[in-house]
């Protein structure tokens, strides 16, 4: 007999209130569902961007409009408008706004966790987090060979694929780092599986990534994170070879309990950090071909 779960937006797990926006959030299994109301006059670039930074909203939103109308302006200038019963899937790189004099009410099931995480944690706090750094290998050489236009299109496609995997594995994008990104996760298993998935999507475009995963305490400041653990995670990534996912000893110990496999890579001296660190490579079983 299967299990059934029941929750109500009348008794949400969390409530987030921002200028002209109220969201009631419910955690249900792997999903964070949101009942969101944006008032007339609400616009992401005016009411949210001052708190999170960036030129565009970099979160994917999927859901359905229940009432009112929502406008979207993509980074390329494309403008879209949605109304009641429209099912939406809005990719990163957009501005959103309420259309008309009626509040827009929507039910969303993708984008809530990464978008509202920083507001739920507060503007500044210390938390234990799993950090994932990724970087494209030989990107400068590849950009010179392909030319600016082709390279930008390829890099944009890489980020779209990486963000889709972050959403799928419960990650929160902190920022991009040129041709890579920094993200946080609740646990190392999610981060490692996400890194492996990003590697697969990159391989399909003949790109290679290196990645580093580390567990440590960080300071959350608005949308950014700071601390020695951030530098250590970045140095671990820098020590990885093409296509390799390196992890710290702490990450290996915590993730090993989940049955994930690793290969020892010995001790390393990481630039700017005292002492030696033992690192290991995450081993992913080859994907099985459906029979």
How would you characterize the overall build of this protein?
It is globular, with a radius of gyration of 20 Å. The protein contains eight helices and 17 strands. Strands 10, 11, 12, 13, 14, 15, 16 and 17 form an eight-stranded mixed sheet that branches. It has a six-stranded antiparallel sheet with strand order 1-2-3-9-4-7, with helices on one face. A three-stranded antiparallel sheet has the order 6-5-8, with no helix packed on it. A hairpin with a 2-residue loop joins strand 13 and strand 14 (224-226). Residues 286-291 have low confidence and may be disordered. It has two domains: 14-116, Jelly Rolls; 123-283, 2-Layer Sandwich (Alpha-Beta Plaits). It has 291 residues and is of the alpha+beta class. The longest helix is centred in the middle third of the chain and has 21 residues, at 148-168. Helices cover 29% and strands 40% of the residues. The chain has helices at residues 44-47, 49-52, 112-121, 139-146, 148-168, 188-204, 228-238, 249-256; strands at 14-18, 21-28, 31-38, 61-67, 69-74, 79-82, 87-90, 94-99, 104-110, 124-136, 172-176, 180-185, 209-221, 224-226, 245-248, 261-269, 276-283.
CATH structural architecture of the largest domain: 2-Layer Sandwich
Class computed from helices, strands and strand pairing: alpha+beta
Tally of individual domains: 2
Strand fraction band? 35-45%
**Uncertain stretches of 5 or more adjacent residues:** 286-291
**Highest-level CATH class of the largest domain:** Alpha Beta
Based on CA inertia axes, which overall geometry fits? globular
Tally of alpha and pi helices: 8
State the CATH topology of the largest domain: Alpha-Beta Plaits
Radius of gyration: 20 Å
Helices and strands, in order, run as: EEEHHEEEEEEHEHHEEHEEHEHEE
Number of extended strands: 17
Distance between the termini: 29 Å
Largest sheet: 8 strands, mixed
What is the mean predicted local confidence, pLDDT?
A: 85
Share of helix, binned: 25-40%
